[in-house]
Design goal:
This protein is α/β, with parallel strands linked by helices. The protein has helices at about 1-20, 100-105, 120-130, 165-175, 200-215, 225-235, 250-260, 270-275, 275-285, 295-300, 305-315, 315-320, 325-335, 355-365, 370-380, 380-385, 435-439; strands at about 25, 30, 45-50, 50-55, 70, 75-80, 80-85, 110-115, 140, 145, 160, 180-185, 220, 240, 265, 340, 405, 420-425, 430. The chain has 17 helices and 19 strands.
C-alpha cells in the first residue's frame, strides 16, 4: 500500500512537467486561420500535443498555466503550406535524396506533400520516417507508380495495363500498398514535344477509374491538354495534376470538373521551366537568398549549353512559351468557377528546385490574378480536401493537427511575405527553418 501511495505522489509531482512540455501557446500574433474568415489580431493559439486545442481572440481563449508560451507579437500565423505535386527530387541532381529534400521543404514552410509516381517501397519508407510528430519532415502522402501506356510521354517506374482486366489488377495492387490515390497518365505530350506520344485506350482508362472508385481510391490524372483532360473527366477522374495549357477551358470542361468535384493542381512552375529554362532558373536563383542551390548549377542550367540540352529533350518549348497566357487565364477562370484549386509544382522536374518552386508557385498564382486569400486556401485547406483530410488539417481550428507557420510579415498584404518564416510547427513540434537547412 505504501508503495502504491509513493508512486501516486511521484506521478502527481512529475505530471505537471510532462504537461508543460506538451502544451504550447502562441500569443500576440495576427491569426490567419485559412478558413477565409477575417484575420484575428492579438490571438491565442493553444496546442496540446500534436493538436490545436483552441484558437481565437485573446478575449476568448485563455492561456493554460502549465503551457510553454511562444511570444509572437507583431507576427502572423497561417496554416502550414502544401505542395501537392512534388517528386522529392531537387531538380538538378541524379540522386533522389528524398528525405533531404523533404526536410528542405519543411524549412520552406511545407508541412504536407503529395508524392505522385512513387516507388511503393520508397513511399512506404518515407511515410514511416515522416510519421512521428517530432520528425523533421512534412506529412507525406502519395500515389504509386504512374499508370500509363508503354512508350508514352512519361518515364520512370510505370504500370502499363493493356486491358480492362489488367487495369483492375493494377488498382488492387495500389490498394494493398495503401496509397492515397492512383496517378494516371493520359498525355500525347505535344505541348512540349513535336512528336506525339501514344496514350492508353479509353476502355482501359474507364476500367481503371471505375475499379479505383469501387476500391475507395481517387484517380488523379496527368493530362495538360484540354481534349485529353475531358476524356478522363468523362470517365470520372477526380482531379488533374497539371493545369490546361493548349486551349482555353470551355463550358464542358467546367461542367465535368464540377460534376466530378475534381481538383485542379496548377504546376505553373513546371510549365515556366519548360517554356524558358534560362529565365526560370535565373528567377529561382534570385529567390534563393540562402544559396541552397549551388551557383554552378544555376549557371549550368541557365547557360546556353544547358538550354540547348534541355531543348533537345523538349522540342516544342516555343509552343509552351506562347501558351503560358492561356495557362494562366485557365487557372483564373477555373478558380472563378468555384473549382478546387490546389498548389503543386512538379518539383524534381528539370530546373524546378525544392522549396523555391513552392513559394514561386504562390507568386505565379498572384501574377495570374488570383486573390491572396484564395492562394493561401489553395496551399492549405484545398490541399487537405484533395486527399480527404479537411477534417484533420488545412486550417487552424480546434481539434486539427497543429501544422502552422509563424511569419514576420503579413502574407495577405503580399503573398511574397510567405518567405518571411520565423518558425515552422509540424504536428505541434516547433522547428527553426535556419536549423533545418543546416542539417
Amino acid at each position: 500500500m505504501k508503495q502504491i501511495t509513493f508512486i501516486f505522489i511521484l506521478l502527481m509531482i512529475v505530471s505537471p512537467n510532462l504537461r508543460a512540455q506538451d502544451v504550447k501557446v502562441i500569443t500576440g500574433a495576427t491569426l490567419i486561420d485559412g478558413t477565409g474568415r477575417a484575420p484575428v489580431k492579438d490571438s491565442v493559439i493553444v496546442i496540446e500535443g500534436a493538436r490545436i486545442r483552441q484558437a481565437g481572440a485573446k478575449s476568448e481563449v485563455g492561456v493554460p498555466k502549465e503551457a510553454a508560451v511562444i511570444d509572437a507579437r507583431g507576427k502572423f500565423v497561417t496554416p502550414g503550406l502544401a505542395d501537392m505535386h512534388n517528386h522529392l527530387r531537387d531538380g538538378f541532381s541524379q540522386g533522389r535524396q528524398a528525405l533531404t529534400n523533404a526536410r528542405r521543404l519543411l524549412a520552406f514552410g511545407v508541412t504536407t506533400v503529395f508524392f505522385p509516381n512513387a516507388n511503393l517501397q520508397l513511399l512506404a519508407t518515407l511515410k514511416q520516417e515522416a510519421a512521428p510528430d517530432n520528425s523533421a519532415y512534412p506529412h507525406i502522402f502519395g500515389a504509386g507508380p504512374i499508370v500509363t501506356v508503354k512508350g508514352g510521354s512519361l518515364s520512370g517506374e510505370l504500370r502499363s495495363p493493356n486491358t480492362a482486366e489488367e487495369a483492375r489488377a493494377v488498382v488492387k495492387e495500389m490498394k494493398i500498398a495503401n496509397v492515397e490515390a492512383i496517378k494516371l497518365g493520359y498525355d500525347d505530350n505535344t505541348w512540349a514535344t513535336k512528336e506525339p506520344a501514344p496514350v492508353l485506350k479509353e476502355e482501359v482508362v474507364s476500367a481503371l477509374i471505375t475499379e479505383a472508385h469501387q476500391q475507395g481510391l481517387k484517380v488523379l490524372v496527368h493530362a495538360p491538354m484540354l481534349e485529353q483532360a475531358k476524356v478522363v473527366l468523362r470517365a470520372g477522374a477526380d482531379g488533374l495534376m497539371h493545369g490546361i495549357i493548349d486551349k482555353p477551358v470551355d463550358d464542358e470542361f467546367i461542367s465535368l470538373m464540377k460534376k466530378n468535384r475534381a481538383c485542379y493542381v496548377s504546376t505553373l512552375a513546371m510549365f515556366e521551366a519548360v517554356a524558358d529554362i534560362t529565365d526560370w532558373v535565373k528567377r529561382e536563383g534570385t529567390y534563393d537568398e540562402k544559396g541552397i542551390v549551388p551557383k554552378a548549377v544555376i549557371q549550368a542550367l541557365s547557360g546556353a549549353a544547358g538550354a540547348e540540352r534541355f531543348n533537345s529533350l523538349f522540342t516544342n518549348t516555343a509552343f509552351t512559351k506562347t501558351h503560358l497566357p492561356t495557362l494562366r487565364a485557365n487557372l483564373k477562370k477555373v478558380d472563378g468557377a468555384g473549382i478546387l484549386i490546389v498548389t503543386g509544382t512538379d518539383t524534381g522536374f528539370f530546373g524546378v528546385f525544392t522549396g523555391m518552386a513552392t513559394h514561386l508557385e504562390l507568386i505565379l498564382h498572384q501574377e495570374a490574378g488570383l486573390k491572396t486569400a484564395d492562394i493561401i486556401k489553395a496551399a492549405t485547406i484545398n490541399a487537405a480536401r484533395m486527399i480527404g483530410r479537411e477534417k484533420e488539417s488545412g486550417t487552424i481550428e480546434e481539434g486539427k493537427i497543429a501544422d502552422l507557420l509563424i511569419l514576420d510579415a503579413n502574407p495577405l498584404d503580399d503573398i511574397r511575405n510567405i518567405k518571411r518564416i520565423h518558425r515552422v510547427i509540424k504536428s505541434g513540434t516547433v522547428f527553426d527553418p535556419v536549423e533545418l537547412l543546416k542539417r
